Amino acid sequence: MSSLLRKKSITKLLQQSNQQTLNRTLNALDLTMLGVGAIIGTGIFVLTGVVAAKSAGPALIISFILSGIACALAAFCYAEFASSVPISGSVYTYTYVTLGEIFAFLIGWDLMLEYLLATAAVATGWSGYFQALLEGFGINLPSILTSAPGSGNGGIVNLPAIIIIFLITALLSKGIKESTRVNNIMVVIKLAVIVIFILTGIFYVKPENWSPFAPFGFEGIITGAATVFFAYLGFDAVATAAEEVKRPQRDVPIGIISSLAICTTLYILVSLILTGMVPYSQLNVSDPVTFALQFVGQNSLAGIISVGAITGITTVLLVVMYAQVRVSFSMSRDGLLPKKLSTIHPTFKTPFQNTWLTGFIAAMIAGFVDLTTLAHLVNMGTLAAFTLVSIAVISLRKSHPHLKRAFKVPFVPVLPAISALLCIYLMTSLSTTTWIAFIIWIGIGLIVYFGYARRHSKLRD
Prior knowledge:
mainly alpha, Amino acid/polyamine transporter I, two-stranded antiparallel ribbon, about 70% helix
């Protein structure tokens, strides 16, 4: 039992960080843009309409606020860890130094599935918007090459989804500075597009569309909050970049909290205007923001929004895949996954083999698997990670009370405990199918841990 709960030394972790070979090139602005790049995408351009129509109605704004509060509480916990243990790996690393190896492995295993499925799901959404954009120019790609088997469209492969993943993989394999430069440009574009929608849409809001405000009741609002958690996926990815930041103790907390604040504000404004422009029952479409502008006769602006949506979803794809590689890189470096996953390219200073392996697997999932059901696992994984990081920060305060912290969570242990309980409450509103799939994945993780990771751990007796 003691070997299952063995913990990494924070002192050794910090020494390891000083000896690592990843390039430290990022600053607070890069991290903020990285967070915004991850958060604003599928959630604002796709989920807003579906959740309004099926779960929350105009009370979608309350769903976003509840999810935002849960994320903000978790963000404080991430920020404290990032300021005191600035190591790649995010909640996996934080759990390793506080709760023990088996919990660290399982949350790392959980994050790998979360990020991998999110990469594939976001690529599928990108493919849909890309096809819609081409159709606007009179170009129609054959359905046999634009949808996965079992999606109901007669397809055999989603080729655009595969291509975009390979392009992102090539970019990430060359280096994080090059990737963030591209990300920053795309983030500026999509923020401009969202501001255009807000400034235009506000003149078409009809208050009568907000009545009834909560047609599905409180239960619908909570279900909506758990569903739109997918929209917040990514701010925790900022923490995975800690070893590539110039001043991680200062810049990582700034990046996490500022990106979450910006995105939560935009989500609330967009959901309020969207449900005010269009009756909520008509928003069950794959492109609700574009649809709303077309609904009020702003067809030319709708085309601009489509370009912004493609840009926005591309940045999500880039950051989520980056986070997946950094988590598996950290687990490999600790001996819990094969050594090749933590091999650094001599020229690019990136986990080159890991990046391409991740890209290939994600591309195959996106190209050949219908992710309608599996995508819900992403929310479960995110909530599980937030729960553990909230518990871990309480443990860290007790085990390392004198550890230097550039940022401290206020009202410990009350605030982290509220964060954990709120995340668990949202998890209970997810479907039985999601819970079964999550338990199966954790079961597979236990097999991998006892069959490989425990024997190869760098902390083995």
